Amino acid sequence: MKLGENERRRAAVVVLGDIGRSPRMQYHALSLATQAHLEVDIVAYGGLDPHVAVKEHKSIHIHEMTQWPSNPRSLPKILRPLLLILKPLVQFFMLLWYLCVKIPAPDVFIVQNPPSVPTLVAVKLASWIRRSAFVIDWHNFGYTLLALSLGRNSRFVALYHWIEKQFGKMANGSLCVTRAMQHELAQNWGISATVLYDQPPDFFRPASLEEKHKLFCGIDKSLRTPYSLQDCLSNEVLTTYDDNPNVTLFTTQTHTDISLKWNRPALIVSSTSWTPDEDFSILLEAALMYDRRVSALLNEDDLKREDVFWQEIKGGKQYPRLLFIITGKGPEKEKYEQKIAKLNLKRVAFRTMWLEPEDYPLLLGSADLGVCLHTSSSGLDLPMKVVDMFGCGLPVCAVSYSCINELVEVDKNGLLFSSSSELADQFMMLFKGFPGECDELKSLKQGVLASRSSVNWATEWEANAKPLISKASYF
Questions:
Q1: Alpha-carbon distance 123 to 114, whole Å?
Q2: Which of 56, 79, 197, 413 has the most crowded CB, counting CB atoms within 10 A?
Q3: What does the radius of gyration of the chain's CA atoms come to, in whole angstroms?
Q4: How far is CA 128 from its chain centroid?
Q5: Residue 404 has what DSSP assignment?
Q6: What is the pLDDT of residues 325-337, one digit of tens each?
Q7: Strand duo 194-195 + 251-254: pairing
Q8: In this structure, how many other beta carbons lie within 10 angstroms of the beta carbon of residue 285?
Q9: Nearest Cα to 321, choosing from 196, 242, 200, 224?
């Protein structure tokens, strides 16, 4: 492609989804703009705002497509197969309109997969029409995600698999997220892919004490509002809170000095899409087990006066109160909030919230532990949420599956669990003696911080993605 003297090369980042929920593709856009010095067009659905670094970058231009409306639950089952055909057709022509008309011709299209249909077909056709290179970033396999709802034996799943494989082979280059996926693509798909491990960008880092205090001041009111009549956090408001804006559940500010409270709860963060493929009940059951086990160990009498009980658990007695903050949006959120409200928990509290993209890293950087409930439909991808947690110096307890050990190293930066009972055991071990004497938790945190300093997204992208994209598009 010949360029004028003052014309910059371009790349198009294509996501058939909400760009605000696609952090890896946002990071691709930033690297293409800052490290490859390209003009970047993002073609995606609107919805959640991307990070401010993406929104405000002068060389990144976001083009929002109209989103396909959600399927009404009242739709007769006989019409649902029709929608499975109609939806990708509408998406196909919309993608072509944006990729071939609405944006300038790029040197390279970089497309997120999945979804595979109609994305790979539309981008391949657009790359042929506009004489551009076509690079796929394999996050997972689309046909395995479809099989979660339709079953592995569905004809639609078989057709989807065929399309994904055939058009995947047509790409000028491929990136993928794990070595296990690289092996699968090479052995069974005939596709050579370069591994680009997810890494957090620079704004995912441990929070300073001042940043923690500012964050907790901003969300303190939400944290003190329970789902039921009262819990171990809201009761503290009734007995000790004096509306001092410089005092939060975790921190205290006196003049210019900020300190962490010695009797603060342990803060555990988990993010979820609130969908059926992520079993949130595991975390609820583990929290309930922790609550009951600590009560039994300390010989706490369920009949003792409530005011005495609340005062005693504020001091910790070896095991702290646990506060779980669950971030994210999704269809099953309300159902689980109702379940939480019915739990009779004395040492544990849950809060759900949605944070701005700039505040989410601060929450991770202020927490004591992360929990990941992600299970892969293919068994070959890794959870981005754990990558973000590691970037913020946060150790993780994660559900165990086939390739998770490519990310979580047991007893170094986290722990793996397969059941709610096993997760409860880990809570008991990690938080005994919190905050001063929990050696196992401190050891995991040190392991995360040690590994965090050795790699980052920019260096990984420069070493693995940039050469592949440059070769495919002849930069």
A1: 13
A2: 413
A3: 24
A4: 34
A5: G
A6: 999 877 788 888 8
A7: unpaired
A8: 16
A9: 224
